[in-house]
Amino acid sequence: QVQLVESGGGLVQLGGSLRLSCGASGFAFDAYAIGWFRQAPGKEREKIACISNGDASATYAASINGRSTISRDNAKNTVSLQMTSLKPEDTAVYYCAADPFCGSYLAEWDYWGQGTQVTVSS
Questions:
Q1: Mean pLDDT of 46-70
Q2: Which among 64, 52, 57 is positioned nearest to 20, based on CA atoms?
Q3: Predicted confidence (pLDDT) per residue in 28-38, tens digit
Q4: Rg for the chain, CA atoms, rounded
Q5: Residue 54 binned pLDDT confidence (cut-offs 50, 70, 90)
Q6: Which residues are CB-contacts of 81 (< 8 A; sequence separation ≥ 6)?
Q7: What is the mean pLDDT of residues 33-56?
Q8: How far apart are CA 10 and CA 59, in angstroms?
Q9: Which residue of 2, 7, 18, 118 has the fewest CB atoms within a 10 Å radius of its CB?
Q10: Residue 79: beta bridge partners?
Q11: What confidence score (pLDDT) does residue 66 get?
Q12: What is the pLDDT of residues 103-115, one digit of tens each?
């Protein structure tokens, strides 16, 4: 059974930091890229970071670039997203997902987690 489980969300102060984790099971984790997405109320789900399989190269959306780091541990089947300098606009439900190629479209992603809420308070 395929599972992706996010953790680490919660209420964070403006300017604070958090570390989101994604635990995976039930599929060949090291053969998949893992992405982080978020969906704010009334907005579309957007991809904010992706780490490839193979060389673990990372890409970031402009909205979090420079203040975030994605990493993966293939031995533990986990991916983490460290975010700093949090802003109210970072408030959203955060999801991790798996796809072999860091696809550009949501429909390309094979597996999804249930999401974890992040709320940045000012």
A1: 96
A2: 64
A3: 999 999 999 99
A4: 13
A5: confident
A6: 19, 20, 22, 36, 48, 49, 68, 69, 70, 94
A7: 96
A8: 24
A9: 2
A10: 22, 72
A11: 96
A12: 889 999 999 999 9
- What are the tokens at 31? 């053969």
Arithmetic mean of pLDDT, 67-77: 98
- The span from the CA of 26 to the CA of 7, in Å, is 18
- Encoding tokens for residue 99? 């796809």
Looking at the predicted structure, is the pLDDT value of residue 122 above 90? no
User: Cβ(37)–Cβ(94) under 8 Å?
Assistant: yes
Measure the CA–CA gap between 109 and 60, rounded to whole angstroms: 17
CA 116 to chain centre: 10
Strand partners, 66: none
Residues 6+ apart with CB under 8 A from 36: 20, 22, 47, 48, 49, 50, 70, 79, 81, 94, 95, 96
Q: CA–CA distance from 100 to each of 50, 65, 97, 110 (Å)?
A: 11, 22, 10, 8
Helical spans, DSSP H, in the chain? none
The label of the residue with tokens 């996010």 reads 6
